[in-house]
Amino acid sequence: MEPEQSAQLEHILGHMAVGVAILNRSDLRIRYINPFLLSLLAEPWRSQGVVGHLLEEVVSGEGRIAALPLLQQVRSTGQGISISDIPYEGFLMVRGRTYWRVSIDPSPTQAPDAQEQQHAEIQNSGDALLITIEDVTNPVRSRLYLKAIHHISSAIAGPYALPQVLDRILQAVQEMVGSTRCAVLLIDQSVSGFDLRISDFEELLPAAMRKSPDAPPTVTIAAQKGMHLSSYNWRPQISEQLLLGHILRDRRTLVITDTSTVPELEFPLLDDEGTPRRPASVLCVPIFEPTADDSIGGSAFDGRNIAAHPSDVLCTIEVYHRRVRGFPTEEVELLEQFAQQAGLAIQNARLFLRINRLARDASRDARQRENIMQAIPDGVIIYDPRWRVADANHAVRKLLGWTEDVIGLHVSEAMARSTAIFPPEATSITDLVAELERRALERRVDEFKIIGADGQDYTIRCSYAPIHDEPGNIFAFVVIYHDVTEQALARERIETEVIARTAELAQRNLALRVAKAEQELESARMQLLLESLPVGVMLVSSEDNSITVINRQAVQIMQHLGLPLEPLDDLDQATKRAVGRNVEELLCSVVVYAPSGSPVPYEERPLALALLKGEASEAEVHTTQPDGQTIFLRSNAAPLRASDETITGAVFVWHDTTKSKALERAREDFFTTMAHELKTPLANIRAHLSALQAKDLQWSAEKQQDFLETADEQVERLVGMINHFLDASRVEAGALRLELEPILLPEMFEDLQDRLEALISSSQRRLEINAPLHLPAVLADYELIMSVLTNLLSNAFRYAPEGDTVRLEAEPVFGINGQQPSGVELRVIDRGSGMTSEQQAELFTRFSTFAATRRPAADRPGQPAAERRKGTMRWSPATGLGLYISRGIVEAHGSTLTLKSSPGEGATFAFTLPVFVGKESRESPVH
Q1: What proportion of the chain, given as a percentage, has pLDDT over 70?
Q2: Global pTM exceeds 0.85
Q3: Which of 335, 363, 466, 911 could pair with 890 in a Cys bridge, judged by C-beta atoms 3.0 to 4.6 Å apart?
């Protein structure tokens, strides 16, 4: 993977709220773990890191016992598994019971079409297991809360006895927070309608709450789960030694994370496998009795602001744990919200009993029934057996917009007088009486939205129930309108959060799929890179000396050595068939020689040393191809080791150095030629100077001047050759220094003609300059560009036919907008013999001898005579550096020297110079 893409992937994994880990499939050693999962680990792993450690070192206890069978299953079957909603109690101190989704997937190392054939290799190849761990605590808690609300709603709707309601409350508590030990503590003889402040229980508690004039009321475990038998008769008096006493005083939830810090408090005992034990931590949540409100839309109880809605404590829900632990805010808030519903359920349990009693006694005590009805915070309607309104409390009259004259009206007529707006499905019922009676017999609980008579929106939970007399006959029906607007809004918020969370998870899954696709793309790119390498690469297994990975270049080299890798005409197919071949059997049949010429046995070659001895080495060898040509190779091999340092294989790299060897020989020939060329002018200079210094010879002044001019010409020739070397070195080092200036091309062309006048007049060829009337000034180094044009024109005059014309052309080049020229293209064109593609490839190399070996002879018709060449630097022996230097100068100007040629079609050299942009730029006519 490219470093840039690897960094992007690491950034994605580092910011995801999903744990990701990669394990070795063979030994479950951790290869990678992202920051989210690392943050869940305990110290010291979170600080020092876990990469390279075994899973059983990092995960211990129940986590390891639960994880190892799943990992073994994936390793043995090769099939991924996913388990949702796994409860975990490792974060009890900070978050309570959490829930997780765990996925384990194998990560294969072979292409799909090779899996069935090499199943055994897959099992032992050391590939990876991908583990993702996602926190799903919030949606699970939301689901459990909704389930608990639905569970307790049946108790709200039906006339259940108080023990059944309390048992359902504890069952819901267990499902929500995962506690196996909890209880509901009731105040004996508890009634509503008193304000209790615990400072002196004996004096301040109402008389109705006391067992005797001088004793406070007691506490009873009304329902329990996981308590010891000895606590069944636990009934202490209310005092400051009980949590319930503090609840009555403070009227808020109490949390004790370590009961050893409050030894003065008294608790019921827990059942620890038959042994009674004092709880180590306790959460006590009060259940308040719903209070009457002037508005049916108001909340009967708001646990967040008890002072704003004072109400009496019915009982408490106490959650116990054997170990010291904290109670996270999420658990506390969840139980506080649930306590409101539990209070309604308890209140309704008593309410149904109260309604039955009031219905039997309605004829005797109508006023008392009215007082009770008005005290109920929910809207209550009592119908007689013929569905005429027998009674309706103030809350429902306010909600529906009824007046007192609805009493005695049939239900259809009474509902017609309502100013509340019901949902369309409610108003479309054809037989209202039959539908209401069916719902009452089924004890249905409906939830719907209405617009009350006051114009406000409400969410109502409506329950229907028949009222029976002692013989079991139905003598009335009761319909209760319970305002659950606040709960519905909370539920909708939870549902919205669940939807958002689901969308977020979907987005994360999409990101994971994108990351996987990127990994697959990166793998394909790595394969493409392997195939694009200019060297042969093989990966060999030490177990059976078989080839596991090989690229096309390695197969091509082996075919050149005469090895039987078929088919010879399809390199891709031959590469696929080479995988699995025994490399020792193949290479032992090839005889290779060391630089000294002695044969090199297979055991002493780098690949054998890496596989057998674990040594990395390099060697240069050569051998003879089947066609008789010698091929030079440089081979490198390095061993691959497992975690226990055993040799698992080797990487073998082949470099075909035949061309570089030929280049070295060409370079040696070049330096030999240059040494000879340098020696010739030096010898000439020395001979002329020695003649001038001879005392026994007398030379005339003209002869002495001729000697000195000849020596000076040879010195200038040496300086030109040395300058070529220096220019070539600067080009290769990228150290050309440009003195950029605006250049008027017409003036440069005139200067160029003056400098080449001797060459033009002596070559019997013509120079033709073609350019438009107006050319923009260009930005370039004057002398360097002049040397490029001089070199190109000199070459053109050498190879152009005698009497022919060499053309120098200039043409503006326009940019994308097509309005202003962005550059000027210069072209040198001749109609010489042209060049093949191979000759063109060699022409621009540094040590090319193409120019020297193919230069026209000095006596060729049309070549300058000796006396005309005298004094011109362009006719020195070829060094093979002219075009190499010219290309470097052009590239330093940000352009490219191009060549178009073919045998018999001449040659065209071209490059482009940028237009000078500035206050001084101007156009000039061509002269």
Answers
A1: 78
A2: no
A3: 911
Assign residue 704 the CATH number of its domain: 1.10.287.130
| Two structure tokens written together for 923 | 């156009």
* Start-end of H helices in 29-96: 35-39, 45-48, 55-58, 62-77
Quote the longest CA-to-CA distance of the chain. 168
- Mean pLDDT on 652-679: 74
pLDDT classification of 8: cutoffs 50, 70, 90 = low
Write the CB contacts of 325 (distance below 8 Å, at least 6 apart in sequence).
Answer: 92, 93, 257, 280, 281
Q: Which helix (H) or strand (E) holds 128?
A: strand 128-135
Q: Is 823 helix (H, G, I), strand (E, B) or coil?
A: strand
Please name every residue paired with 285 in a beta bridge, in sequence order, or none if there are none: 317
Q: Which domain holds residue 27?
A: 3-135
Q: C-alpha distances in angstroms, 198 versus 243, 246, 893?
A: 12, 8, 95
Which of 132-136, 236-240, 408-412, 716-720 bottoms out in mean pLDDT, i.e. has the lowest? Answer: 716-720
**Count: domains in the chain:** 6
Residues 299, 236 share a domain: yes
* Least confident among 52-56, 332-336, 700-704: 700-704
Higher pLDDT, 390 or 159: 390
The gap from C-alpha 597 to its chain's centroid, in whole angstroms, comes to 56
623 vs 599: CA distance, rounded Å: 9
Beta-strand ranges (E) seen in 214-279 are: 219-225, 254-256, 270-272, 275-277
Vertex 198: Cα angle to 197 and 203 (nearest 5): 95
User: What's the whole-number mean pLDDT along residues 490-513?
Assistant: 90
